[in-house]
């Protein structure tokens, strides 16, 4: 699967770990920045990843910032994006099953690499349930 990944400075170190894990699991990953832990503005990187997913260049996106909230809010401003904040494996599964999330966001200051890896495994293996969830997801788009 083609995946775009990005973060802010708070998520930089975890992003490197997550990128390696994704590649080790056979995914093609484009790191859209940043490329150091110097202070940056999370909306810039969230927008890059979200636009690339919305444009169909990448099938899924992964974003990290300190709380995960900033990148989630920023990504969701792009039409066609359903970015979900996931802080444990169960939430990651539900993000796919109920919301058909195409970007998953993690709180780098409040989670660890193992939790993120397990959460990603759940997210990738879960399937959108459709049905009543499809109706709800359709109501998200203006």
UniProtKB/TrEMBL annotation:
The keyword Isomerase applies. The active site is at residues 65, 98. Belongs to the LacAB/RpiB family. GO terms for molecular function: galactose-6-phosphate isomerase activity; ribose-5-phosphate isomerase activity. This is Sugar-phosphate isomerase, RpiB/LacA/LacB family. Pfam families: LacAB_rpiB. InterPro entries: RpiB (IPR004785), RpiB_LacA_LacB (IPR003500), RpiB_LacA_LacB_sf (IPR036569). The keyword DNA-binding does not apply. Keywords: Isomerase. D-ribulose 5-phosphate binds at residues 8-9, 66-70, 99, 109, 132, 136. PANTHER family: DNA DAMAGE-REPAIR_TOLERATION PROTEIN DRT102 (PTHR30345:SF0), RIBOSE-5-PHOSPHATE ISOMERASE B (PTHR30345). Its EC number is 5.3.1.26. One of its GO terms (biological process) is D-allose catabolic process.
């Amino acid at each position: 699967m083609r995946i775009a990944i990005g973060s802010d400075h708070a998520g930089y170190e975890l992003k490197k770990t997550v990128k390696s894990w994704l590649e080790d699991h056979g995914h093609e990953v484009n790191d859209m920045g940043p490329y150091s832990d110097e202070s940056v503005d999370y909306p810039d990187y969230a927008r890059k990843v979200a636009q690339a997913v919305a444009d169909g260049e990448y099938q899924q996106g992964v974003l990290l910032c300190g709380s995960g909230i900033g990148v989630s809010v920023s990504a969701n401003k792009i039409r066609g994006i359903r970015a979900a904040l996931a802080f444990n494996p169960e939430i990651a599964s539900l993000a796919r099953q109920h919301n058909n999330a195409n970007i998953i966001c993690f709180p780098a200051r409040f989670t660890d690499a193992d939790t993120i890896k397990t959460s990603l495994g759940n997210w990738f293996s879960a399937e959108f349930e459709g049905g009543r969830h499809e109706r709800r997801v359709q109501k998200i788009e203006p």
